[in-house]
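Problem 12. The chain below contains 158 residues. Write out its predicted structure in token notation.
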Amino acid sequence: MPSEKPNPQQWTLRFKCHKTTILLLVAPDDSFTSVKERLLEAAKATQIKAINGQPLPSEPDDLILGVLIDENEPNEGWVGLEIPELEDDTGKKGSKNSGVLNATPMGAGLRDGSVLAFRFRNEASDADDLVMDDEKWDVVMPDIDDDDGSQMNEAEEV
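Solution.
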């Protein structure tokens, strides 16, 4: 994967799955389709074969992205980034809001440094990937309480 030279117009997005975090430089107006392609390329370039026992998919369409429900409270969980297709009165499928969230990071309300979750679509997934329980988003967020407390113990001894 060729390294890119950062420029002020690019954003750094953090993609998390289990304990794995992949940083990507993306333009705010890049399509999520191209972002998924680059995410999969980056994972393969670092020789990742599986994450938490799940093999890496071969197609970018098998990646599902999610965003935090509340950026200030990561423990509240994640919600799928895709908008479901709805049938209108004429019976045609489509999303009235297509392009709002699905199109670009800027359209999704993301900004430089935003965190996204990703997971892999598989045959066992429900037909509706948007109704996802928090258990389906395997993201381990670091917690300050996870520290062994060695610094705290040193401060208490002084």
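Discussion. The two ends are 49 Å apart (CA to CA). Students who got a different answer should revisit the alignment rule from Section 12.3.
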